[in-house]
Predict the 3D structure of the following.
Amino acid sequence: MIKFQQILKEEIELFDKKFKNILSTKGGLLYKVTTYLRKNSGKKIRPICAIISSGLIGNITKKTYRSSILIELLHTATLIHDDIVDDAQIRRSAFSLNTIWKNKIAVLTGDYFLAKGLKIAVQNKDYKILELISDVVEKMVEGELAQIEKTRKLNLTEEDYFKIIKLKTGSLFECAFELGGISAKANNNDVKKLKDLGSIIGIMFQIKDDIIDYNYSNYSGKQSANDIKEGKINLPLLYALPKMHLLEKNKVFKILRKKNNTKLELAFVVNQVKKYKGIEYAEAIITEKYNDAKMIISNFKEGKYKKSIYSVLDFLIDRKK
């Protein structure tokens, strides 16, 4: 058990209970699918961030838990749909939904999760939550489409990269922290700090994912060099590319454009990234963001929730999957 999970044991158990109740259904197939998803759930980082955010303000409410449930429903739906688009076979070291039940059932399950979240918000007249969640979906789609366009053209800049990950990954973390603050009736100044903290954590999370993609020891159950196989330029590669000789760069672009790559081709790209210190550069950016996050956290009062958010930061830096 990770430290923040120990500190927030009671809050996480309550969240799990509420989340299970929300997904309770008499539908045979739907029951099987949702039960499978709950058994193979991840660390619940995003809903936990919403709870921590309210805790930092000092006022965890029923609205806090509703917000965290909506965040988890949205996140789960996007993961299901991502696996379908990417034809991913594995998610969190287990078979993905589309692998077991095929695409149609997986798509419908993702839609069900989204609809469930919208229904909860409307039933409780949580219109501000609904507005923020809708805004996040818009941003995530915008970021995904921008990445697809840049992947096709192979013309990604560092400015493009950070804009895309802020939309794709940062926006959901930002929303989790903002909803936590609003649920706790935080003032506008504190909500702004929490939003900034969420955005930073989201960016850290994505950059760490980029680094893990070059880890051949790979604890995640996913194949390493996944971005390369999909033709995506992540931060370590983006930094290494301008430093490569023309022949090296042309070979990398050729590999990125191929639909199927050999292990030797993947190893070539990985070795180029390591040769030109792309991973070290990405790690330096994470350290910089870590320090920015700590500066924001220092504004909040001491206690278990402050300890928890520090533990989340440490987990993001140290995680292997």
